[in-house]
Amino acid sequence: MSTVGTAARTGIEAGTQLPELRIPITATLIVTGAIATRDFQKVHHDKDVAEAAGTPNVFMNILTTNALVNRYVGEWAGPDARVGRINIRLGATNFPGDEMVFTGTVESVDGENVVVKVIGTNSLGPHVTGTVNLTIPSKGESA
Hints:
Elements: H1 6-9, E1 17-25, H2 27-36, H3 47-52, H4 62-77, E2 82-90, E3 98-110, E4 113-122, E5 125-135
Antiparallel strand pairs: 1-3, 2-5, 3-4, 4-5
């Protein structure tokens, strides 16, 4: 019986490019992301406090960014894929009125184990860079 996973059977290999995903950065996305992740720091929902801290507006927290990275790779990999690890670094801040553009490349495939390099860029530069390790199970298996 073959142990070759879905990734290999569907042509996913190192160098495979993920489709681009564009996400409008709105105040609503930033505030609801902060609330959903129980991050009540006022710089994520109160513009006056954010400005007093030296930024032009409220800004996205790392937990919301992490969730968006998970969404990007998860939508590409499909509902049976399992995310094992997300390792990210933040760069340029996400402010309302901007757009984040995700791109990704498969770094490696080992059977069912896939590592994807992800970059999310806004008008200021790379907002998030990192890797996502996931498992894409063989046909007939489910998460």
